[in-house]
Amino acid sequence: MAAVVGRRRASGGGRRFALLTVAPATLLLVGISIFPLLWALRLSFMQDSLLSVATPHFIGVDNYAHLFHDPLFWSSLGVTSVFAVSVITIQLVAGLAIALALDRLPRYQQVIATILLIPSILSPSVVSFQWRQLFDYYSGPLNYFLGLLHLPLQGWTASARGALPALVLVDFWEWTPFMVLLMFAGIKSLPRSVFEAARIDGSSGWQVTIFQTIPLLRRVIAIAVILRLIGAFKIFDIIYSLTAGGPGTSTESLAFYTYVQGFRYFDLGYSTAMAFVTLILITVLARLILGFMERPIGRSVG
After folding, report:
1. What is the model's pLDDT at position 301?
2. Are 300 and 211 in contact (CB under 8 A)?
């Protein structure tokens, strides 16, 4: 009996010690993450403008209702959707193709993968500055080469038709290496015996890629798509530096429009509501992607 009581006391002491150990981290998490999130959620239901002398007051869901009647919100959502679909599709296809090619190199795979990653670790301000020079109408290298080919010069970020594709190009250059790294790591983690068995059964390299490699990489692909989806919905710095949302509102993303409402018009309640709508959209889309990932993998060739 005494031994049982002793074990219970020891167990209780260990539990208290564990709680005391995690308490600082928990309090820090609540202080810097959960509390600001709840405060922002409260603010999204308030009428709070720094340009008004009126006292902030509760207005319920009026900020959220206003979103559905705001044409600029729908315009920015459309820009963000087109941008996200474009960059994710292009980067996924290119990243997977480069990773497959990299995996077939006989040597220096790690060295080449490290070099390819350089654009993704550069500061966004550096990336924006260098691409601003490349896009320059008069002295930029892109228009210089177009001139050598006797093609018309382009105002890359100066036209409503070309500004968004130009931003897609910049994001492609910066983040495709990140996609390559994820795909390359996923390929290296796959069991080689599966591919050897498929080749013994007579499957071609194309069939192995389509029916073996890609299905086995589906979870890695889903994670990569979610990460790039979050990045696409949050894109702000490159837009701010290269186009400032223009010409007009042709490159005004959700993140940039939220910035405009919050830090140009100082409508804190409305901008916070927009930020939470963006969070909900990302969460729903990520959940749909994860649901697709959890579906059983179909039959493969072999």
Report:
1. 42
2. yes
